[in-house]
Amino acid sequence: MSPADQARLLADVEAFCEEIRPIEELCYVEHKFNSEVLPLGRKYNLLGMIVPEIYGGRGADTVTYARALTRLGREGTGVRTFFSGHTSIGEYPILTWGNEEQKRRYLTAAVRGDKILAFGLTEPEAGSNPLEMQMTYERKGDHFLLNGVKYLISNAGIAGAIVTFAYPKGRTGRISAFIIDAVDGPGFAREDLTAKMGMPTANTAMFELTDYAVPVANMLGKEGDGFRIAMGTLVAGRLSVAAGCLGVIEDCLAEAITYAKERQQHGKPIAKHQLVQEHIAGIEMDRLASESLVLRAAEAKDASNAEPGNGALKARAELLSAQAKLFASNAAWDAADRAVQVFGGRGWSTLYRPGRHLQDVRVCRIYEGTDEILKLKVAAAVLGKEYEAFK
Question: Is 368 a catalytic residue?
Fold first, then answer.
């Protein structure tokens, strides 16, 4: 991607963010899904940021895409989650493991906004350990019949296609991946999940497949490669979460600085009070450290993408993605908490941005790999594979 193309993409992201902000704030107060992310994403050509130009996308490198997600994260974790679900874990696995026919059929539609994408891995009884999933598939002629439930899936309620995973019936083999067309009707049922602590403007849903017919041509990758595809996709997903969390920190810092300079107590702006300055300094350190990790992880992913056969580069990108996500999600939680404290009583209100960030960003320590799972990955990388907690 040329520097000029990078600048154009980031300018389009900025224009999108400026237009989406008042809409997002109103939707948040009304606790309803922000349906404008799609038409505005289409307007500014942001629905295929990482997709090559041959399929209609922008062809962004990982560093540029991370910067875009950071800017989107300032508008709220719900806005950023839409793009992560559609692009980082929706388009990415099709782009990486799909065949040419699948890429042309699904990526071109996704870039145009004709199909929103989602990633269906989590199940009610299979969260941190996807190997415990219960969804199954069975071949019947030129179709597979899929049965099972996926739960807490971003974009699932609005998706036109979902990358999902299942065991062969009877668990006689390894997990495989599929691209399913999400068509409401016989065999496919979904329900939006609105009882959430945060992200009311984002779509989260569950879906159930009952003898749902999926063409054999829609298997993603080779049979039995599903777990590898899922884990590879999560590297991109974790990096996208980390970048979005950096955006949250940036917005919390900007809001806290502005408020602290304007708010008067004890005869002077609270920005002159030392304990308020402690919070400002803390948020800035969260921002600086998260930015460094996010950019380092994005650079490692670009290096790995450039040499897909290099195992060392792949392992480094995977680890840095986990480290960035672990650190940035916790830093964003700390930054939002500090910004709420700077705002005082007004911080305890979703009419102000820090309170919304505090509610929304908490999930970032859970989805795409919990804190606990990522800590195990980091520890195993330091101690050696023979010390892995789970094998």
Answer: yes
- 295: number of Cβ within 10 Å: 18
Strand pairing of 219-220 and 161-168? Answer: unpaired
DSSP string, 271-339: GGSHHHHHHHHHHHHHHHHHHHHHHHHHHHHHHHHHSTT-HHHHHHHHHHHHHHHHHHHHHHHHHHHHH
* Cα distance between the two ends of the chain: 39
Q: Quick one: which of 50, 59, 18 has its CA closest to 36?
A: 18
Region 190-196: mean pLDDT is 94
Burial class of residue 346, CB neighbours in 10 A (0-12, 13-18, 19+): middle
In 10 A of CB 374, how many CB atoms? 22
Backbone torsions φ then ψ of 367, nearest 5 degrees: -75, 160
Could you tell me the pLDDT band of residue 223, with boundaries at 50, 70 and 90?
A: very high
What backbone torsions phi and psi does residue 206 show, to the nearest 5 degrees?
A: -120, 155
Q: State how far the Cα of 89 lies from the Cα of 67, in Å rounded to an integer.
A: 17
- CB 135, CB 123: distance < 8 Å: yes
Cβ-based neighbour number of residue 259 at 10 Å: 22
The residue among 220, 245, 250 whose CA lies nearest residue 89 is 220
Instruction: State how far the Cα of 391 lies from the Cα of 388, in Å rounded to an integer.
Output: 6
- Concatenating the DSSP letter of every residue in 60-114 gives --HHHHHHHHHHHHHT-HHHHHHHIIIIIIIIHHHHHH--HHHIIIIIHHHHHTS
Distance between CA atoms of residues 152 and 85, nearest Å: 12
Which residue is catalytic, options 125, 368, 372, 388?
368
Write out pLDDT tens, residues 9-64: 999 999 999 999 999 999 999 999 999 999 999 999 999 999 999 999 999 999 99
SS3 call for 273: coil
pLDDT single digits (tens) 54-81: 999 999 999 999 999 999 999 999 999 9
